[in-house]
Specification:
four-stranded antiparallel β-sheet; alpha/beta; binds adenosine monophosphate; four-stranded parallel β-sheet; 15 helices; binds zinc ion; Rossmann fold; 470 residues; 48% helix; Four Helix Bundle (Hemerythrin (Met), subunit A)
Length: 470
């Protein structure tokens, strides 16, 4: 199994630290608003990575944090005349609702910064003791010059960074180097605070992930992931903090998803060009959003558009119809045992599994994995005729479910929910059957057309009339 490691800029064979186990950490959202579809990308992509590891038999410990203390959360709380906790609790709950809609499994741990302050203070203290950090007037900075590997992830040269920063931004006189970043900042009036050896204040952004990864996964982890905007400075700074504190490699593989763009610009809350998952879910089922995200390779940019969503909706419908047909045939099959021809066809089905795994083994190429699913769908659609045996259809469904479950698709209960028009549709089908019985073919055809205008396709089989959307 190969994955692209941002640290080496190469596809590498995945070898876990401990056989059969994967320890992974994914940076989560700052909770001051609903998540947008750009934030949903790392959710869905790394959930799929996790599912694939589990499919391969690995035991995965998955950590995703919530950043619940931040300037933007405080600003929002002030606007609403409430507390930071009220805002972050609200948007954590909303983020879970979206994650559930997108069929993203709960992480093993979902730590929150405000509950980890003690360990944050401990790590900052250790960094000061080891001369990697210094304090000035209640602010603690990380000394980037003290870590000679600074820049190894983003491939940036520290001296060039320092020179660039001094041209662009106003210097903070307390900093030894313009690239030094804040580990602890003093309280401003009216802001939430915790007491620390450097006075009342709160942690900077980067330190939280170093602390939480260590607490929940250990000093060295297998995989660290997030969106590519986090490579610099966030992940670079996490490496500096963790490796200087622990004296060990922090993460062995770094995975980064590409952006979701709008008109080819990165979608972001600050730019205001974002669509929340909640808004999109009002127009398209959540599952289509998940499918849309998995349709591209995770490192490539995806430009969000209504047309692309619609085409994904149609694609997913085709896959769903195949599953519904299989279920229908399993329920209504005339024979149970497989014929010898079906026995032979079973081997062919296995080719789609191999095709699927080859794609996923190549840096989680979900786009090619979906092609394998489409080919399986084509094969199934051709093979299920009135003669199909129940056992064979069941074997097909088993393979179908196995592969779509890795993608987190079509496994939710709500998929089995009745179509709201079921009663009307079935009444029309019954009327059509009656018309046909009376050889009133004009009426029968008119009913078929009426159903078609409702988006319903019907199929006459020996077992009865099957109907589906699309
Ligand atoms: P934030 O709440 O901005 O810290 O982002 C949470 C996660 O979403 C991080 O892993 C980001 O890298 C990721 N992210 C934010 N915007 C986008 C985007 N437009 N496309 C893909 N990933 C994004
Ligand atoms: Zn992080």
């Amino acid at each position: 199994m190969k994955l692209y490691n941002t640290l080496t800029r190469k596809k590498e064979e995945f070898i876990p630290m401990e056989e059969g186990k994967v320890k992974m950490y994914v940076c989560g959202p700052t909770v001051y608003n609903f998540i947008h579809i750009g934030n949903a990308r790392p959710y869905v992509v790394f959930d799929t990575v996790r599912r694939y590891f589990e499919y391969k038999g690995y035991d995965v410990t998955y950590v995703q944090n919530f950043t619940d203390v931040d300037d933007k959360i405080i600003k929002k709380a002030n606007e609403e005349n409430t507390t930071m906790d009220v805002i972050s609790n609200r948007y954590i709950e909303e983020a879970f609702k979206d994650a559930d809609g997108l069929n993203v499994k709960r992480a093993t741990f979902h730590p929150r910064v405000t509950q980890e302050i003690e360990n944050i203070i401990k790590m900052i203290s250790e960094l000061i003791e080891k001369d990697y950090a210094y304090e000035d007037n209640g602010t603690v900075y990380f000394d980037t010059k003290a870590f000679n590997e600074y820049g190894k992830l983003s491939k940036k040269n520290l001296d060039e960074l320092i020179a660039g920063a001094s041209e662009r931004v106003q210097q903070d006189d307390a900093k030894k180097n313009s690239t030094d970043f804040v580990l602890w900042k003093p309280q401003k009036p009216g802001e939430p605070k915790w007491s620390s050896p450097w006075g009342d204040g709160r942690p900077g952004w980067h330190i939280e992930c170093s602390v939480m990864a260590k607490k929940y996964l250990g000093e060295t982890i297998d995989i660290h992931a997030g969106g590519e905007d986090l490579i610099f400075p966030h992940h670079e700074n996490e490496i500096a903090q963790s490796e200087c504190c622990n004296g060990k490699t922090f993460a062995r593989y770094w995975l980064h998803n590409g952006f979701i763009t709008v008109d080819n610009e990165k979608m972001s809350k600050s730019a205001g060009n974002f669509f929340t998952v909640r808004d999109i879910a009002a127009h398209f089922p959540y599952e289509v959003i998940r499918f849309f995200i998995l349709n591209g390779h995770y490192r490539m940019p995806i430009n969000f558009s209504d047309e692309l969503m619609k085409s994904c909706q149609n694609g997913l419908e085709r896959i769903k119809n195949c599953k519904n047909s299989l279920i229908y045939y399993i329920e209504n099959a005339k024979t149970v045992d497989m014929t010898s021809d079906e026995q032979k066809q079973l081997e062919e089905i296995d080719k789609f599994r191999v095709q699927f795994e080859t794609a996923m083994d190549d840096d989680f190429n979900t786009a090619d994995a979906i092609t394998a699913v489409y080919e399986l769908v084509r094969f199934i659609n051709k093979s299920i005729t009135d003669e199909v045996s129940k056992t064979f259809a069941e074997k097909e469904l088993e393979m179908f479910n196995k592969l779509t479950a890795v993608l987190g698709l079509l496994e939710k209960e709500e998929e089995k929910e009745e179509d709201p028009d079921t009663a009307i549709i079935e009444e029309l089908i019954a009327k059509r059957a009656e018309a046909k019985k009376n050889k009133d073919f004009a009426t029968a055809d008119a009913i078929r057309d009426e159903l078609s205008s409702m988006g319903i396709t019907i199929k006459d089989t020996r077992q009865g009339v099957q109907w589906f959307r699309g």
